[in-house]
Specification:
single chain, alpha/beta, Rossmann fold, ten-stranded mixed beta sheet, 8 helices, 19% strand, globular
Length: 319
Amino acid sequence: MKLFRSGSLALLCSVALHASDAPSSIPPDQPSAQLFSADAYAAVKSFYEYDKGIPLDAKVVDRIETPAFVREKIAFTAHSGERIAGWLAVPKNTAIPPPCILVLHGVGSTKDSWWRPDNPTGPLAPRLLEAGYAVFMLDARFFGERSYLGDFANPQNLVGKNGWLFRFRDLIVHTVIDYRRALDYLAIRPEIDPKRRMIFGYSMGGVTAINLLAVEPRLAGGVICVAPPMLAGPATGPLAAARQRLASVAPENHARALAGRPLLFLMADKDEYYTPAAAEAMIALIPGDAKQVRFFDSGHMLPHTYIDEVIGWMNTTGW
């Protein structure tokens, strides 16, 4: 694993567990919830399967054209039967069909936030388009146009309420399958490269991206920003049960399935939701040496210079 420490807060990933909650007598930085056996993990991966025979019935329902790119809103049928919509934007400055990057938001955001000038995670989508990449993004379950699934409540308010652990777990699983359906759709769009696909995820989006990468061979690799470890902490105590309930979506359990995939982890030295040691322990669970990790001198919200790291890495990865 290549380790870098770069210069220099964010979409709150409220399900991250604070290392400071661990008793001082128990090392807080190593996974304490039991990692799944091979058989148990195979069962977990089956949660992400879906019926490919369900028609997508995809439609372009909105279209915006600028001098630099074309952006379309695509509505299609999810595996659950729900109609969902995502943004597909394709740059105009490419001589050949460009690669496509799936862009996954965090808890404090939606798919529309990537297009707003005040987006706290910076102008990632416009910068990717300028660099010659197409981008595609959905709302995670309960977010944005899908807030009706949570009775239109602010999804951040679900945290701490009865059953929130199960809702978060189901949110990750359903959103992963939604993106698998989106990949089915993207495969039929002639203006983007039919094979070159990568993923970017920030915070909760990073957790979702790791889950998606673990079950989706059509993704070459990706960039994971400030995705918190979910199993680090004491094996007993008030948070131990929470860790066990989230174990099926925890990055630590899916790390084994990422061997050989080019991955860049952009993490924070002063993140309030994990320690650098816990992050390094999580990333070390990924077999092989195709992964890299870089730490910023910041909290959970990375300085916007992280976008330079993302584009530079994607330009040189050779995928």
